[in-house]
């Protein structure tokens, strides 16, 4: 069995594929069919890409749901070695440095592109601290506040316990999500008119089932299949499927494209199967994928997710201004986004994370000394 501290190559591959999926969704679909005001203004003079390309990428939003599932799996594995405040510290070290670098890069890019700067600095400040309310520097940051809330729930509910504690988190989140979706569909006309408000996202009710599924997947990886474990995964997949189907139907009027949830459901189930099998196929992947390459892929995924959207829209706009076709502009921008994310994840982010880690260590030492002085 693979050590719980060992990174699984399969998870890194699925996570990177999710980032590519979300990037293609934004570049090929939402930038043209449901753009933000900034994206619409930047691409006002660009021609829409081939309709087949737009339609082909319309379900790639499913990468976000898979991201949440991976997060549940990874967090369950990490709880073996750290819990409580130590766990939160490691999570902040993982989230903040890349957010600082990417939000600053986005700020500079949008300012250079002439984007309305009335609230640009405020949006940048919110992104620096991962503030969950209000507009942030890039729309992609909305998922980070959900991740942070998940981390807080884990830190509070698990406390000093280990695997059994994380199971209770999964059970709570799954029941919470099931109750939410049951209430939603029982009062669908009212709920449809209201929509899902950001506060409910922060309470983890729509997306808690995905984190729960990831935790259950880790449990099966560590203990093997059991009737109870398989039942929990089945229930989690059911609730996740409800959310995926709802999302497909919600986006249909925006995109004016067929809304069948079968494609995103198939993509989600296939990814879940790969995550379940990730430990079994680890020996094979270790023979065909270099460990350092897999690690770099994992490091590049998070910056790619944070940086790609509005910075990429600016890039596509520049390319099309130079008379490059929209399809080629999207391709070149995608390649550039991956390269920049790779550079950030492997070169820029590690020293920033090290500096933050040293600062937090010194701060912790000062607090401990003060407490000792108070009790002496």
DSSP helical segment count: 16
Radius of gyration: 21 Å
Largest sheet: none
Q: Strand share of the residues?
A: under 5%
Categorize the overall geometry.
globular
Protein structure class: mainly alpha
- Helix and strand pattern: HHHHHHHHHHHHHHHH
**How far is the N terminus from the C terminus?**
48 Å
- Number of beta-strand segments: 0
| Mean pLDDT over all positions | 87
Low-confidence stretches: 1-5
Question: Would you kindly provide a written description of the structure presented here, covering whatever features stand out?
Answer:
The protein has one domain (9-369). Helices cover 78% and strands 0% of the residues. It is built from 16 helices and no strands. It has helices spanning 9-33, 37-42, 51-56, 62-78, 84-112, 120-128, 142-158, 163-186, 188-194, 198-202, 208-223, 227-255, 262-277, 282-288, 291-321, 326-375. Helix 5 packs antiparallel against helix 6.
């Amino acid at each position: 069995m693979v050590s719980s501290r060992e990174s699984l190559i399969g998870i890194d591959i699925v996570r990177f594929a999710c980032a590519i999926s979300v990037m293609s969704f934004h570049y090929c679909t939402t930038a043209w069919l449901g753009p933000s005001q900034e994206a619409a203004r930047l691409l006002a003079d660009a021609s829409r890409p081939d309709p087949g390309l737009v339609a082909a990428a319309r379900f790639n939003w499913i990468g976000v749901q898979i991201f949440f599932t991976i997060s549940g799996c990874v967090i369950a594995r990490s709880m073996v070695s750290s819990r409580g405040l130590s766990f939160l510290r490691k999570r902040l070290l993982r989230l903040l440095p890349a957010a600082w670098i990417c939000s600053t890069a986005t700020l500079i890019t949008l300012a250079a592109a002439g984007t309305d700067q009335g609230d640009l600095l405020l949006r940048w400040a919110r992104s620096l601290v991962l503030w969950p309310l209000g507009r942030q520097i890039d729309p992609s940051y909305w998922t980070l506040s959900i991740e942070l809330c998940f981390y807080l729930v884990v830190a509070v509910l698990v406390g000093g316990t280990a695997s059994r504690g994380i199971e209770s988190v999964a059970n709570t989140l799954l029941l919470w999500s099931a109750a939410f979706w049951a209430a939603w569909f029982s009062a669908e006309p009212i709920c449809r008119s209201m929509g899902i408000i950001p506060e409910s996202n922060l309470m983890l009710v729509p997306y808690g089932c995905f984190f729960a599924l990831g935790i259950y997947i880790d449990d099966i990886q560590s203990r093997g299949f059991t009737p109870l474990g398989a039942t929990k995964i089945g229930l989690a997949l059911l609730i996740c499927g409800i959310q995926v189907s709802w999302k497909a139907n919600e986006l249909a009027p925006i995109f004016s494209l067929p809304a069948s949830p079968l494609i995103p459901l198939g993509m989600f189930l296939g990814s879940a199967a790969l995550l379940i099998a990730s430990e079994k196929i680890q020996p094979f992947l270790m023979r065909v994928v270099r460990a350092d390459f897999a690690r770099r892929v994992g490091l590049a995924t998070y910056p790619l997710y944070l940086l790609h959207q509005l910075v990429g829209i600016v890039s596509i706009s520049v390319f099309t201004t130079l008379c490059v076709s929209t399809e080629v502009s999207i391709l070149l921008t995608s390649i550039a986004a991956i390269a920049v994310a790779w550079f950030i994840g492997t070169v820029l982010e590690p020293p920033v994370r090290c500096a933050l880690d040293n600062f937090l260590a010194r701060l912790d030492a000062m607090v401990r000394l003060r407490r000792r002085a108070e009790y002496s």
